[in-house]
Every structure is written in C-alpha cells, then in structure tokens.
Specification:
The protein is an all-alpha fold and 501 residues long. The protein folds into 2 domains: 35-257, Up-down Bundle (Growth Hormone, Chain: A); 258-501, Up-down Bundle (Growth Hormone, Chain: A). It has 17 helices and no strands. The chain has helices at residues 2-43, 45-66, 70-97, 105-120, 134-151, 153-166, 170-200, 208-237, 260-271, 274-304, 311-336, 339-359, 369-397, 401-425, 437-463, 467-472, 491-496. Helix 11 (311-336) packs antiparallel against helix 12. It is globular, with a radius of gyration of 25 Å.
Length: 501
C-alpha cells in the first residue's frame, strides 16, 4: 500500500510539473502573441498618426497660415494625390526585389519608411525661408507633400503584409484585420486629442492661421516622437518573425504573391467584368465623400459657423470616434436588417446631415454635433459595405486583391485630386487668408452639398445596376447554379466579410 501511495504521489507530482510547464509555455506563447499584436498596431502608428494631420489640417494651413491661393493649394493636393497613386504599386514592386540585411524585405522597408517620415514630416509645417515668391512656395510644399506621400507605402504595405506573416489561419487573419481597423481609429483619435490639447491650452490667440502655423509645428515633433517609439516597439515585437519564400512581397490577404504575368492575367479578367467598373465607381464615390469631409471640415466649423478655435479639434475627434462605432456596428446591423436597407439608411443619414450643414445658422453653434454623428456613422457604413462588395468580387473572380485595389486607388487618388482643383477654382477671395461672407457660403454649400451629392450618387449606383439583384436578391448561402453566374456576388460573402480598409 505504501509503495502504491508513493507511486501515486510520484505520478501526481509528475503531472503537476508537466501542467506547470505547459501553463508556463502557454503563457509565454500568449505573451509573445500579445506583444506581436501590440507591435502590429504600432506598425501603422506613424503613417496613420501623420495622415490625420495631412488630411485635416494641410489645406487650412496652406491657406490661412502660409497664404497660398486656392489654385496653388489645389495644385499641391493634386501632385500629392498623383504621387500617392503611383507610389503604392511602385513600392510594392520595389519591396519584392529589395534585400536588407538583418531586417528582411518587409521590416527593412518599414524601417526605411519610418526613418524618412520621421526626418521629413516637420518640413511640411515649416515656413519656407528661402522661398521668395508664391510660386516657389507652391513648388516647395508640392515637393514635400509628394515625397511624404511616396514614403507612406513603405510602412503601409509591410503593415498589411504582417497579416499573412502573423496569422496561421483564416480566423486569425480576420482578427488581425479587425486590429488593423482598430489601430486606424486609435491613432486618429490620438492625433485629434493632441491637436485639441495644443489649441485648447492657448487662451490668448484666436487667429486660426497663426494657431495652425504654431501648433502644427509642435504637432509634427509629437508625430516624430510617436514614430520613433512605434518603430522600436514594432521591430522588437516581430524580430523573430521569418519571411517565408511564399511571402517575399506584399501581396493579397491570403498571402499569395502576384507575379507580373498573374497581374496582367488578373487585369484582363477584371476588365471584362462590368461589376469591376460599377464597384470602382462606388468605391471612388464613398472615398471621395470621406476625403471631401476631411478637406473642408475645419473651414466649415471655424469660418462658416464661427465656432471657437477648439472646434477644429474636438469636432473631428467626435466624427472619428463615431465613425469607429459605425465600422464596428455595420456587421450586426446588416445581419439584423439586410445589406440593401443598411446602405439605404446610411445614404439617408449622410444626405440629412449634408442638408443640415447647409441650413444651420451660426447662432445654433454646437448643435452641429448631431449631424456630425449621423454623417460619421453613415459614411463609415457606406465605405465599409463598398469594401465588402469589392472583396466579394475579388473572391468570386479569384484574382489578387493587390491588382484590384491598386487599380481602384490609382483612379480614386487622381480623380479626387482633379475634383478638388476644380472646386478650389470657384472659391471666392482666392488670394485671401481670411474668409469673406461669400467665402463662408462657399464652404457651406461645397461641404454640405458635396456630401449630399456623393451620397445620392452612391445610392444611385447601387439601385440602377443589376449588381443590386446579384448581391442583395439572393438568400443567405445560396450557391450559383449556372456557369454564367460566375461573375456575380453572393450575399453570404458580404454578410460575413464586412472589411474596413
């Protein structure tokens, strides 16, 4: 009996030891995975944090602080849009052939982009001391904006490629996609909080141009500090990640690497599909609605509604916060209602908000928060569903998403840049830093009316095409029975994959 007790005690001790080792190993693996997730969020920190300042404050900075004309600002933005459109596929090709010791291709490119962005970002918000004329100032800020936009893909593409490297199955890829979306909202909210703090602490100066000229310089140094910290955390957390031969370039979300021949083949496939053009227009309209809001919100709040200077920070903060809510809520809303009704409600919310922006008198002040909430949620839902429809088309046609998104982004960037140039030409007082009464009305109707126009156009695209029936007219999970249906989309794909860029 005593011997059996000793043997049993030994077995218990052995099992406890094995359990303790197993738990320690599991805890170590979980900690390592958690650190990688933190690093994954940090990998998008610099370009997302900097991007908020570029999208929201660059246009007001050039007009109210530097004093450039409307046409010059339009030219600068167009140059930045074109370089952004060209640099994404170009950097993708460069990453495929780049060899960087110790870091590998993706992490090495991310490091290069981080160093360049940290060093050059403050130049965007500096007064050009050697510029003697407005044309030389236009040239300076155009070059700086173009260079910075061409640097962004060095960080953006490796960030996306980390999904294929870190995830071992589809579930983990979806989780990382959600974390990427969360990171975008997180860094945006942090950027607006920083600007809110910088502007709110200045109790004396009420001049928008002087405030932006001063505070954005400080914000650029904050961006650089955040960039250094994020870069260190990212590379420390993924240092042991090996880039396998199948992941030697930034590719689609499944980890497949498109070769030059496959890219040409994919382009031929999508060019023959009418849904490619319909969804391309829908993506462009939804993106343009977001870009229009970001470009003109500061002018509308400060010059049209006459809100206090802090409004140019806390109202964008509110917008982005509720946009995150809309991105998260889209999937349960779609399941509760259906995609068509959800999209229609989103369009209605944006249209109602645009009308409210056009009609609101100055004396109502911060009541503008209500339409801001509606337009933020509606815009996020519209954009999310447009991405989901395109993702479904990519899956259905079995083509690389790099090919499709590259084509869409190229057209989107250039077309919106051209639209912005045209709109800028109609601004009254094109040479003035301050806003006249006619200029105030210009921002009111360009801002609110533009939102209404883009929202109605998006709804019309969905209603007037056979794509509506293909996507929304089928029951959940119904398979295609005819060979001719291969270019159509399934409702199930839209319901289960509402992605956010």
């Amino acid at each position: 009996m005593a011997q059996n007790d000793r043997e049993r005690s030994y077995e218990y001790t052995k099992m406890a030891g094995e359990l303790e080792i197993g738990l320690a190993q599991k805890l170590k693996e979980k900690s390592k995975l958690g650190m990688m997730f933190v690093g994954f969020i940090c990998s998008c920190g610099l370009y997302e944090f900097a991007g908020v300042f570029w999208m929201t404050y660059f246009n007001p900075f050039l007009q109210t602080s530097i004093g450039l004309s409307s046409g010059d600002i339009g030219t600068i933005v167009l140059v930045a849009q074109i370089t952004d459109a060209i640099s994404n596929p170009s950097v993708g090709i460069l990453i495929e052939h780049l060899k960087i010791p110790l870091f590998g291709k993706k992490r090495g490119c991310h490091l290069i982009g981080s160093i360049l962005m940290t060093a050059l970002f403050p130049l965007m918000w500096m007064n050009c001391s050697f510029c003697q004329s407005q044309s030389s100032q236009t040239f300076y800020y155009g070059v700086v904006a173009g260079v910075l936009n061409s640097i962004t893909p060095f960080m953006f593409l490796p960030h996306l490629s980390m999904i294929a490297l870190l995830a071992s199955n589809e579930k983990q890829r979806l989780i990382l996609g959600g974390i990427s979306s969360f990171g975008k909202q997180f860094w945006g909210i942090l950027a607006y909080s920083t600007m809110w703090l910088l502007i709110g602490t200045d109790k004396e100066n009420e001049n928008l141009g002087e405030l932006l000229g001063e505070k954005l310089k400080i914000a650029s140094y904050v961006v650089c500090g955040v960039g250094v910290i994020c870069t260190i955390i990212f590379h420390a957390s993924v240092w042991n990640i090996k880039e396998t031969p199948s992941d030697t370039t930034v590719a689609d979300t499944s980890g497949n690497v498109p070769s030059r021949n496959s890219t040409i083949r994919d382009l031929k496939t999508v060019f023959k599909n009418p849904n490619f053009y319909i969804l391309g227009l829908l993506y462009f309209v939804c993106r343009s609605e977001l870009s229009l809001y970001n470009m003109y919100q500061v002018f509308f709040f400060e010059q049209t509604l006459g809100l206090p200077k802090e409004a140019v920070a806390y109202l964008p903060f509110i917008y982005l916060s509720f946009a995150g809510v809309g991105s998260i809520a889209v999937k349960p809303i779609v399941k509760k209602l259906n995609p068509m009704v959800t999209f229609a409600l989103a369009v209605l919310a944006v249209v109602a908000s645009g009308v409210a922006f056009m009609l609101q008198p100055q004396e109502y002040g911060n009541i503008v928060i209500l339409p801001i909430i509606f337009v933020s949620v509606g815009s996020a839902i519209m954009y999310t569903l447009s991405l989901s429809l395109t993702s479904s088309l990519i899956v259905r046609l079995k083509v690389s998403d790099v090919t499709v998104w590259g084509a869409y982004n190229l057209i989107d960037r250039i077309l919106f840049g051209l639209i912005f140039v045209v709109v800028q030409e109609f601004r009254p007082c094109p040479q003035s830093k301050t806003c006249c009464e006619a200029c105030s009305d210009f921002y009111r109707y360009s801002f609110g009316g533009g939102l209404v126009m883009f929202a109605l156009l998006a709804g019309g695209l969905l209603l007037s095409t056979r794509l509506t029936g293909d996507v929304f007219g089928r029951s959940r999970g119904e398979e295609y029975r005819e060979e001719g249906d291969k270019n159509k989309l399934r409702l199930q794909e839209v319901l289960e994959n509402p992605t956010v860029e």
